[in-house]
Each structure stands twice: as structure tokens, then as C-alpha cells.
Design brief:
- This protein has one domain: Rossmann fold, CATH 3.40.50.720.
- The protein is about 35% helix and about 15% strand.
- It has four helices and five strands.
- The strands form two sheets. A three-stranded mixed sheet has the order 1-3-2, with no helix packed on it. Strands 4-5 form a two-stranded parallel ribbon.
- Strand 2 and strand 3 form a beta hairpin.
Length: about 110
């Protein structure tokens, strides 16, 4: 998950309540947030994004509409494209079935 704003926390809670998806890490560039945790997920630097995607075999990188997103360099974006891992923008408002929405976004990008 790119960012740690309130919307990111809400999406974490919504997806964590289900069984289909897990947020494995939050990405933030502020040094005082590094290595803290949001639920079970650690907060990591943007430079660690690609390694985390590989380590956890991620199906997508998420960001929430309107949330402050840390800068992700062009190399990381190219690597994500090579790995066929999309960066998906989730709506700020959580839908009634968040896992269903996320699955449909992933399917459309496949």
C-alpha cells in the first residue's frame, strides 16, 4: 500500500476483515514512520517496494484516491511493469464488498 493516510488505514481494516487479500507492507518516505507497524504490516521506504513485491509475490500495489503517496522512482515503476504487478487506485470510500472490487480491478489489469 502506497501511503499511510487515514484512507489507507481504512482499506487495510476492510481487506483484513476478509480472507482474500492481505496488505503486506505500507510504503512511506518519512523516516520517523519507518519500521513502525499498521496492524500486521510494517511501514517501509519506497526504495524497498520492488523487493517487497518479489518477496511476497504481490498481485498488485495499492494506493487510495486522494491519499498522500510517497514518490516511487521510474526504475521501480518499470520493474513493477516487468513483473506485471499493477499499481491500482482504490476509491477513498470503501465499498460494501472491498475484496470484490479489488479482485475486479486486478482482473481488468491482467
Amino acid at each position: 500500500m502506497l501511503g499511510i493516510d487515514y484512507g489507507c488505514h481504512q482499506w487495510y481494516q476492510a481487506l483484513h476483515a476478509g480472507r482474500d487479500f492481505r496488505i503486506r507492507a505500507f510504503i512511506d518516505d518519512e523516516p520517523w514512520n519507518h519500521r513502525t507497524r499498521i496492524g500486521e504490516a510494517p511501514v517501509q521506504y519506497p526504495g524497498e517496494l520492488v523487493a517487497l513485491v518479489r518477496k511476497h509475490d504481490a498481485c498488485a500495489v495499492l494506493q487510495v484516491e486522494g491519499a498522500k503517496v510517497p514518490p516511487v522512482d521510474s526504475w521501480a515503476r518499470e520493474e513493477l511493469a516487468t513483473l506485471k504487478v499493477p499499481v491500482l487506485v482504490l476509491p477513498a470510500r470503501i465499498p460494501p464488498q472491498p475484496s470484490v472490487l479489488l479482485a475486479s480491478l486486478i482482473e481488468r489489469r491482467a
